Amino acid sequence: MKEARHTILQVDDHALFRNGLKLLLNSHPRFRVVGEAATGREMLGWLEQAERLPDVVLLDIAMPDMNGIEAAAEALGRWPGLRIITLSMYGEEDYYFKMVSQGVKGFLLKNSDITEVYAAIEAVLEGGSYFSQELLFNLVSNLRSSSDSEAEELPEAEETTDEAALSAREKEILLLICKGMTNYEIADTLFISKRTVDKHRANILEKTNCKNTANLVVYAIKNGLVEI
After folding, report:
1. Is the distance from CB of 93 to CB of 142 less than 8 angstroms?
2. Nearest CA among 132, 135, 190 for reference residue 200
3. Closest CA to 117 of 24, 35, 189
4. pLDDT tens digits, residue range 123-182?
């Protein structure tokens, strides 16, 4: 019996980009694009009428009418389980922290190789998150080169605790989470069980007062734990 393919909704105002990516996604044996939208409002309308929510939403940030930040906030408020991956351009790093605070599951740059897009979707489908290493490098570089007064204010992860509260193993796992690894991949990398990783992840979320795994990336950057 042929395995059902995971459904994807594409949201981007550039039709040429959408069409090219759709061809590549549909060529993958596990993915199928079931819908497209050119604005945030179109996305919300599509979701309202859908008989079944898509497994993943690929969402652009800079769009007319309603941008990705506003669309993500409203969509996740109405459908909290929606898995959103931001796919955007250079020069928009300041928006990514706002998207993290909304609860999106991943970030990719539009110049990413298609294999990285596949990897991001797979990671999110497995319950993890995915953050482009190139994007993380840009974010960290910008934060390091900006003065505190000029730097974009990072979203609060409630009141983040001193990073010293994390154990050595928890810091190690936090870095792997920032690299977009799933719990299974972290377990394989560290030669421990997935159940142990699950427990560490839960402890990290509690200690850092982060609401979701995406917020952990912000925490890691604020506390200088990201090394690229």
Report:
1. yes
2. 190
3. 24
4. 899 888 888 877 776 666 666 565 444 444 444 544 444 555 889 999 899 888 877 777
Cα distance between residue 40 and residue 11, in whole Å? 7
pLDDT in tens, 176-197: 887 777 788 899 999 999 999 9
The two three-digit tokens of residue 226, written as one number: 């990201």
Cα three-residue angle 198-215-208, rounded to 5 degrees: 65
Asked whether the beta carbons of 187 and 193 are under 8 A apart, the reply is yes
Which amino acid appears at position 132 of this protein?
Answer: S
Helix axes 93-102, 68-78, angle to 10 degrees: 10
Predicted model pTM: 0.75
Report the C-alpha gap between 96 and 94 in whole angstroms: 6
Token match 């298609």: residue? 114
Residue 81 CB partners (closer than 8 Å, separation 6+): 53
Radius of gyration of the chain (CA): 17
CB 178 within 8 A of CB 208: no
